[in-house]
Amino acid sequence: MSLSLRGLTVRQGGATLIEGITLDIAPARLTGLIGVNGAGKSTLMRAALGLIPAQGTSDLAALPLARRARRAAWLPQSREVAWPIPVAELVRLGRPWGPARGAGDAAGAEALAAVGAAHLAGRIATGLSGASWRAC
């Protein structure tokens, strides 16, 4: 299987997650995708597979779904949240009494700050990279 990407760009909520990725991977090659946590490796793969909206082109994402499924598969890093919910609200769901407002807001903010993830509070959980997700 080969893979060809041209100008692949993913934007979410006004943020550019990956921009202008162009590459060609020849058939029968072992290729590694290496980068620091949160660099966009999973986002790139999701976009290349056509699992998330992207600008640019991916020859794999352009295939009809049945052909694409025969050529590639996606195994996520971990369980994924099934609905678009802000990270702060998802954290509040972990409280024993649910996502109550008020005191729960402060406790959720404190919990995110304690793990260095306060900057993710307003992000939609379904759009986080694997590294950002683990930070929560």
Element layout with pairings:
Elements: E1 3-12, E2 15-25, H1 41-48, E3 55-58, H2 65-71, H3 87-93, H4 103-114, H5 130-135
Antiparallel strand pairs: 1-2, 1-3
Polypeptide structure, described:
The protein is an alpha+beta fold and 136 residues long. It folds into two domains: 3-71, no CATH class; 87-135, no CATH class. It has helices at 41-48, 65-71, 87-93, 103-114, 130-135; strands spanning 3-12, 15-25, 55-58. The chain has a three-stranded antiparallel β-sheet. Strand 1 and strand 2 (15-25) form a beta hairpin. Helix 3 (87-93) crosses helix 4.
Tally of discrete structural domains:
2
Strands side by side in the biggest sheet: 2-1-3
Tell me the fraction of residues in β-strands, as a range. Answer: 15-25%
Instruction: Give a quick account of the main beta sheet: strands, pairing sense, barrel closure.
Output: 3 strands, antiparallel
Tell me the helix content: 25-40%
* Tally of DSSP β-strands: 3
Order of helices and strands: EEHEHHHH
- Outline type: elongated
Could you give a quick summary of the protein structure above?
With 136 residues, this protein is of the alpha+beta class. The chain is built from five helices and three strands; from the N terminus they run E-E-H-E-H-H-H-H.
